[in-house]
Amino acid sequence: MRTLDVRRLGRTRYEDVHALQRALVAKRAEGAIEDTLVLTEHEPVITHGRGTPAAEVTALTATGIPVVEVERGGEATYHGPGQLVAYPILQLEEERRDLHRYLRDLEEVVIGVLAEFELEGTRRPGLTGVWLGERKVCSLGVAVRRWVTWHGLALNLHTDLEPFRRFHPCGLAPDVMTRLADHVELPPTNLLGEVLLVKHFCRVFGRELPPPVPPPDEPGRGFRALPVL
Closest Cα partner for 84 from 19, 140, 157, 186? Predict the structure, then answer.
C-alpha cells in the first residue's frame, strides 16, 4: 500500500488552503511528497466551478457571502464552520485514471462514513455527491493536474444550512441540502468525522497511514515517558 499523509488544518480561510493545494499538487507531481489528504473547515465562502451559469454567478454576489471562482468542475457551493472539507492530493495509479471512477470512489468514502452511523447514503443518477433520503449531505468537485488530484468533497456535519438557501447549490433547489446532525447525535467538533473519513478513504483508495513517530526517550532513563493525562 502507498502511504497517506493526513494534514488537519482546523478552521481556515479558503484562499489560504487553495494556495496550499497548488503547492502540494506541484510537489506531488514532482514526487517530492507522498499522497496527502488535507482536512479543514472553512470560514464562510461560496466557491463556484467551471459549470456555473453566468446568471448564477451574478446572483451569488447578492448573497453577502464572499465568492471565489475555482478550477474544479461543478457549480456553486457553500463552505462554512461545521462542514468537513477534504482535499485529496493523490497521484492516481494507471488503472484509476478515470475521473468518473474517481468521483464514485469519493462518494464511496462518504457512504462508508454514513454507514458508521447506520445511515444509508445514496447516489443520484447524473449527479455527483451523496444523499440522505431526498436531501444532499455531501458535495463533490474535483480537478486533476498531471494526474494529481485536488479540490475534493464537503460533508455537512453540523453546518448552518441557511447560507445554502440564498442560491442554487450545485444548480439544485435552495433547500436541497441537509446535515448529518439532523439525522444523528454528533459531538460538537469535526474530529469524529475526520477519523471516520480517513478510515474509509484508506479503505477505498488502498492507502495506509505512516507508523506513529515514537516519543523521544526521556534523558537518563531506559524507557519512554508516558504523556500526562
Answer: 157
> What is the spatial distance between Cα 156 and Cα 188, in angstroms, rounded to a whole number?
13
- Per-residue model confidence as pLDDT tens digits over 61-73: 999 999 999 999 8
Please state the φ and ψ torsions of residue 82, each to the nearest 5 degrees: 85, 0
Q: What whole-number distance in Å separates Cα of residue 102 and Cα of residue 75?
A: 18
Say what the alpha-carbon torsion angle 76, 13, 33, 3 is, to the nearest 10 degrees: -70
- Statement: residue 184 has pLDDT above 90: yes
Q: Is 170 a catalytic residue?
A: yes
Query: How far are the Cα atoms of 75, 154, 168 from residue 55, in angstroms, in the given order?
Result: 12, 24, 11
Of 25, 38, 153, 170, the catalytic one is: 170
Q: In CATH, what class is 2-208?
A: alpha beta
Q: Which amino acid is at 87?
A: Y
Closest CA to 73 of 144, 163, 166, 156: 144
Residue 69 has φ and ψ, to the nearest 5°, of -90, 135
